[in-house]
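Changelog entry: the DNA photolyase record was regenerated in this release. Current contents:
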Amino acid sequence: MDFAPTRAAALARLARFLPAAGRRYAETRNADNGPAAGGRGNVSQLSPWLHAGIIGEAEVLDAVLAAHGPRASEKFIAEVFWRIYFKGYLEQRPQIWADYVTGRDAALAATDANAGRRTAYARAIEGRTGIEAFDVWAHELVETGYLHNHARMWFASIWIFTLKLDWRLGADFFLRHLMDGDAASNTLSWRWVAGLHTKGKHYLARADNIARYTAARPGGALAAFGLAGDDTPPLTEPQDYPRAMPGLPGAVSASDLAQPFALLLHDEAAHHAPLGLPAEPALVIGAQRAEARSPGAIGAPLRVFAEGAVAHGMAEAAAAFGCAAMQWQPGAPLAPLLGAARVERIAVPYLPTGWTRDALWPELAPLAAQGRIITLLGELDRVTWPLAKAGFFPVGKAAGTLLAECGITGRA
Ligand SMILES: Cc1cc2nc3c(=O)[nH]c(=O)nc-3n(C[C@H](O)[C@H](O)[C@H](O)COP(=O)(O)OP(=O)(O)OC[C@H]3O[C@@H](n4cnc5c(N)ncnc54)[C@H](O)[C@@H]3O)c2cc1C
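Regenerated structure tokens:
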């Protein structure tokens, strides 16, 4: 697998995947064919670039619509909308993320304090449980920084219901290693598997299903003996998460950016191209904070991707706009960077609930209070998030209308 953290690599991946994005995707996407070269032609593997904002959902959907039309690309479109839906859902219930962080830290401390828990946790993350499929995926995740969607579902299910480990430790393990590790998609998918997202509806991995959809892996189907039975109950939790829609920023026009401004590139918006800026910045500032995903160490493939993504993004933006680019180092104040470049305001791609926001907002908040921040939010997010109130269904049903509203027709 080749995951160069550049826009050129993202566009090349999209171009290579496009022929398979129609009916073929719908029919074959569930198979986990393994990481060997060429094995994964059935899915796009665009998630690291989408997560880093190196390529945008809008341009991906437009290209797929142009290649296949709305009917044949329905399934692929729906999957991309799952990403937008999860983001909108968490934005309306940020307490889920806050509780995840508190629960994760408590679970890590409890594991540290108990030898039995420590051993069980170490076996799981080191791929030494004796459940072949699970162990293969644990190694694959650490070594490649990516797992197929079906493998993520099976892995999370075995973690929760067979190994009976805390789901937040599993979500943390994913965040520490997935290049696409996303606070919304990851936390809410783990909660979905556990039966906490759709209350009472959990996902139980079955050995025959795993064997069927891993049959084309180079080593053959993966075995998974001794999994939790069909009568295993979902997890429950005492609290509900009431919904509150935050005020979303409107579209930014050239007049909003009339004075010299800086552009911030961060881990979820590492490239300027998908932002569609209506004016050119006088300075580019890069903030890479992948370490903020977890109190534990992050994996090497993720580190390389995250560092490269912001570094390449800064270099390409500086070249495109003919301006300087500077790194904003963790712990350093931001205001002096702006002062040195004589810019008052900074355009900040929306910081969604999660680790990117946790890492950057404390320093940005005082600037926001002074009216010095211009927030950039994509049109597709702005129109979709308000529909992410409960289940995915209303979002999936409205996908066609939402795309048309945003001018994403494949006919540009
Ligand atoms: C337990 C668990 C944890 C997950 N954690 C993450 C995560 O941290 N970050 C992440 O981006 N996705 C996560 N997913 C969703 C999904 O597994 C990945 O987005 C997908 O596997 C990425 O591979 P791809 O790009 O080849 O997907 P494709 O099948 O080619 O889909 C295209 C794009 O649609 C989006 N997408 C597809 N399926 C989903 C889905 N079920 N939910 C949300 N978005 C989706 C992704 O952006 C993806 O790149 C998780 C799923 C599970 C079950």
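Residues 29, 43-47, 50-51, 79-80, 82-83, 86, 148-149, 152-153, 156, 174, 178, 180-182, 185-186, 189-190, 193 surround flavin-adenine dinucleotide (CB under 6 Å).
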